[in-house]
């Protein structure tokens, strides 16, 4: 089954623009999400395949509207709720449903 992240051969997407000397993180929160994901994987809360799958299961509109690390953060929140580590209600963010709110 094809998912939204499987865009190979699809048309209609804008060209990828590379930033010269692009930093690994554009904001501190992105570095925190990167570190949090690594810590949760090392602790065995979930594995890399589960993390990737959680990103790929995001609703199409959310996936396309989100930045790279916004998708990571959404996947982490999804997995923490699914694994029963944290209640989904405790993970709600202001403006949930709109990653740019």
From TrEMBL:
InterPro entries: CN_hydtase_beta-like_N (IPR049054). It holds the Pfam family NHase_beta_N. It comes from the Bacteria. Residues 1-92 form the Nitrile hydratase beta subunit-like N-terminal domain. This is Nitrile hydratase subunit beta. It comes from Pseudonocardia oceani.
């Amino acid at each position: 089954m094809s998912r939204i992240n499987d865009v190979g051969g699809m048309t209609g997407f804008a060209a990828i623009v590379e930033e010269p000397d692009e930093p690994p993180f554009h904001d501190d929160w992105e570095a925190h999400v990167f570190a949090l994901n690594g810590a949760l994987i090392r602790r065995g809360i979930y594995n890399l395949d589960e993390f990737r799958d959680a990103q790929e299961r995001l609703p199409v509109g959310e996936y396309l509207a989100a930045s790279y690390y916004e998708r990571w953060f959404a996947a982490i929140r999804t997995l923490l709720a699914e694994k029963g580590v944290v209640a989904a209600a405790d993970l709600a963010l202001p403006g949930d449903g709109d990653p740019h709110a």
